[in-house]
Amino acid sequence: MKVCIPTRDNNGMEGAVEQHFGKALTYTILDTNSGEIFVVPNTSEHMGGVELPPELLRKYGVEIMLCAGLGYRAVKMFESYGIDVFVGAGGTVQDAVEAWKANQLHSASAENTCAEHDHHNHHH
């Protein structure tokens, strides 16, 4: 299973979780089966590219997204690609993965996403 965390750097499991999803410089992806870690640059439209993050990350086979928070529209887009989103991540990538495995993160819903972003009609 491939788990993705929006990050600020290219430091693998020690990388810092980006608190603003759409502004993440990188996405760190952990393959929980092989233990392989790879970091991809955020080339989505938020960073001057042409795709939205869910479109970009589905190409890498991501199945789970762990993040601090994001807008509900983004959650729905991730879900449309079969990617489950969990919110409440912080610290390092390692911290986020451990919190997810310990069921300390919450499945994203309309109630726990960044509603203020939906009011401005933009995605994280």
TrEMBL record:
Residues 14-101 form the Dinitrogenase iron-molybdenum cofactor biosynthesis domain. CDD domains: MTH1175. InterPro entries: Di-Nase_FeMo-co_biosynth, DiNase_FeMo-co_biosyn_sf, MTH1175_dom. This is Dinitrogenase iron-molybdenum cofactor biosynthesis protein. It comes from Methanosarcina acetivorans.
